[in-house]
């Protein structure tokens, strides 16, 4: 399994990663090599094997639906690149 | 007394409890060692001098009032993956270079409560993705045994600083070997507990079904003391296991007579360095002399660990790292044209090459049409790998082998070849896939570089691993060796 430049660019866009054009050939080679080692997985028949979801087969813990966290908006927004009146600012989405 | 760095964490704790030294003295002593030696190693990203001195002062008051928590007043460092309130928590990335954590990770909180004094945050591969500490935004860490070599990764800063004795102990995290591999390459002791034993809350996530924190120190005894504080159920971590607190020091002194040690033939196959093999064989003979029995076993699916791991870990990382969007915290690109440009450039500029590579591999493996062939298949194979261990532990008590196929490699030697880098974790990643506890202890030297012996245990068998390691360390002094130039 190998990838071409267009596929790499498409994956990068799906992952919302800007990749410099000059770096594309390097990623094509690296990602293709990585996919190559995945081929070993095909040699084993896993038709009746349950996928493993948790190492010690624990189940999802549930708790009562009650408020436990206090409001820390100001603390968290102090870390944001850009905020105004308690809102996170991003470039205009709707003209 | 001026050679505190030659003492173990346990010894230092004893001196503090006896009132023979103050926490402030020890803190000043190790801060001075960091200042003196870390230019050579680059093992710290942040040194928190002021916070450390304040914590030491508070610890001294507690000690004077008869406080008996074993770790009260001892200095240590955290890997920079653990959120620590009021301090930069960078995870080795440009993305989080400006991130001052607003809260403490559970592990940070636990060690604070115990009175341990954090001196700073150690260097690491970016987002814990790497086996050499070369992917850090803050530069490569150097191995104190040979400054031209890598310390291993991703907990490379923790391993190098403990090995050079510029701190007595540190925390680490292990997703595919990130505690054990650098511990082996730097000649220290490190343990990755059973998945779910140490809380992941506030530990920046890489691959959530594999990530597990643990201690890195000079000896098994020191690791046991740290583990006593770091483990325990935490309702803030949805995969934390509800188990009673355990005293990991209680079994340290049990004799090993009758211990059954499994030797997987796959861990002693081709590709292994001859000098490393000789060191491991010698260690195994020492165990035999202590009354242990060596048993040949097989882990027939272990050769699939590398492909399975490099599907599962990147898939989970691509989901976990989607939170870094340039909006709420972390790096934001300049002058974004629109929202997509903001996301793509913030992430493209904020992440390094290896992190981008893994996000893309994961994105591909999870994308429409490929999910069954890659992610589902890998999760099925993970079950087979895990079943191999289950079967092995029906006949043996622990499994042993080399932690790594070779000793520390040269800086730059593997950095252009991701696959050869991935293969340096070949003996450690199966343990994460199965969620088992594993540790690495110093077992000698090959070509003047440290060699690690890996000890793998059954689920929740940390006490036995520590016992097996401690008994070896009672009869050997490999764990007490200090690299030249740092004595």
Instruction: Determine the oligomeric state from the structure.
Output: heterodimer
- Alpha-beta content class of chain A: mainly alpha
Element-level helix/strand string of chain A: HHHEE
Report the uncertain regions of chain A: none
Proportion of beta-strand residues of chain A: under 5%
How many strands of chain B? 11
Gyration radius of chain B (Cα, Å) is 21 Å
Helix content of chain A: 25-40%
Strand order across the largest sheet of chain B: 4-6-5-10-11-9-7-8
- The DSSP helix count of chain A reads 3
The SSE order of chain B reads: HHEHEHEHEHEEHEHEHHHHEHHEEH
Alpha carbon gyration radius of chain A: 23 Å
Strand content of chain B: 5-15%
- Structural class of chain B, by secondary structure, is alpha/beta
Overall pLDDT confidence of chain A: 91
Q: What does this protein look like?
A:
The complex is a heterodimer of chains A (95) and B (487). By secondary structure, chain A is mainly alpha-helical. Chain A has a domain at 5-43. In chain A, 32% of the residues lie in helices and 4% in strands. The longest helix of chain A is centred in the first third of the chain and has 15 residues, at 24-38. The mean pLDDT of chain A is 91. With 487 residues, chain B is α/β, with parallel strands linked by helices. Chain B has a domain at 4-258 and 435-480: Amidase signature (AS) domain (Amidase signature (AS) enzymes). Helices cover 37% and strands 13% of the residues of chain B. Chain B is built from 15 helices and 11 strands. Chain B has helices spanning 9-17, 23-41, 49-64, 106-113, 156-163, 180-186, 220-230, 274-289, 305-320, 339-350, 353-366, 372-392, 418-422, 429-434, 462-475; strands at 44-47, 75-79, 117-122, 169-174, 189-192, 212-217, 260-264, 293-297, 398-402, 438-446, 449-457. In chain B, the strands form 2 sheets. Chain B has an 8-stranded mixed β-sheet with strand order 4-6-5-10-11-9-7-8. A 3-stranded mixed β-sheet of chain B has the order 1-3-2, with helices on both faces. At the A-B interface, helix 1 and helix 2 of A face helix 9, helix 10, helix 11, helix 12 and helix 13 of B.
